[in-house]
Amino acid sequence: MNKILSIILVSLTCAYMTINCKASEKQTQNPKKTLIVYFSYSHGNTKSIAEKLQKTLHADIVCLEPKTPYPRDNEKMDKQGREEVEQQFKPELKPLNIKLNDYDRIIIGTPTWWYRMAPVILSFMSSNDFKGKTVIPFSTHAGWAGSVIKDMTALAKEKGAIVENGHAFLFRDKKEGQPSIDSPEELDKWIDSLK
Ligand SMILES: Cc1cc2nc3c(=O)[nH]c(=O)nc-3n(C[C@H](O)[C@H](O)[C@H](O)COP(=O)(O)O)c2cc1C
After folding, report:
1. Pocket test residue of 113, 170, 174 for ligand 1, highest count of atoms within 8 A of CB
2. Ligand 1 site-directed mutation target among 47, 141, 167, 173, most atoms within 8 Å of CB
3. Is pTM, for the whole model, over 0.85?
4. Which residues contact 157 (CB under 8 A, 6 or more apart)?
5. 77 alpha carbon – ligand 1 mean position (Å)
6. Which amino acid residue places its CA nearest to atom 4 of ligand 1?
7. What is the pLDDT of residue 18?
8. CB within 8 A of 107, min separation 6: which ones?
9. CA-based radius of gyration for the chain
10. Who lines ligand 1 at CB under 6 A?
């Protein structure tokens, strides 16, 4: 009798464990995974938003870098940046250690360069497919937001994405040469909308 009871108990425990494992397998096979992709050059403005997103959303993050680094001289950079934007130049990027296919949602951040997205972001978006993914574009700017969000939205849609919640953030020079975000409340509200 005791033997029969233990067999029943062991079988029930195994059945329960199997159900539990299946449930957790399902969760890990279908997580809504978010990746943050950004480029930042001048002050780290775009980087600061990307890192806040990473902490709040517990997302993965990747920083894009051109294979040939940009000059650190302001005048040279302004000129080169303008030429690249006007010619819709797509600089070659350093290889990435991530697979976009692992993610359902991609948040893409760029500084505004001559009213447009930075060429590094144009390269990234042009060379990838976003079919079935949600793309959320954001930009930082110093007062002239231009058409960045509109352009990123159009390009992501062209590449198959559903686009949501695009947002441009103003950074002002509060101390000499040290910009900070104009409205931290606006940023918090936007991040809340992405939770
Ligand atoms: C080449 C270049 C072009 C820029 N063009 C614009 C512009 O058209 N409008 C604007 O508001 N800010 C412009 N900026 C300022 C940056 O967009 C702004 O400071 C941004 O927040 C910098 O982000 P980062 O620190 O992540 O690079 C430009 C900066 C650079 C270097």
Report:
1. 113
2. 141
3. yes
4. 163
5. 11
6. 113
7. 35
8. 34, 35, 36, 37, 50, 53, 59, 135, 136, 137, 138, 194
9. 22
10. 40-47, 77-78, 81, 111-115, 140-144, 146, 171
User: Distance between CA 192 and CA 194 in Å, rounded?
Assistant: 5
Q: What is the pLDDT at residue 29?
A: 46
Q: Which domains does the chain show, CATH number per domain?
A: 33-193 (3.40.50.360)
Average pLDDT over residues 51-69: 97
Ligand 1 atom closest to Cα of residue 80: 1
| Distance between Cα 179 and ligand 1 center (Å) | 11
State in Å: Cα 23 to ligand 1 middle.
47
Can you tell me whether residue 87 is helix, strand or coil? coil
Find tokens 């919640």 and name the residue.
Answer: 165
- Asked if the model's pLDDT at residue 132 lies above 90, the reply is yes
- The answer to whether the CB of 137 falls within 8 A of the CB of 149 is yes
Rounded distance between C-alpha atoms, residue 117 and residue 37, angstroms:
13
Contacts of 41 (CB under 8 A, 6+ apart): 70, 77, 111, 118
- Neighbouring-strand partners of residue 139: 110, 168
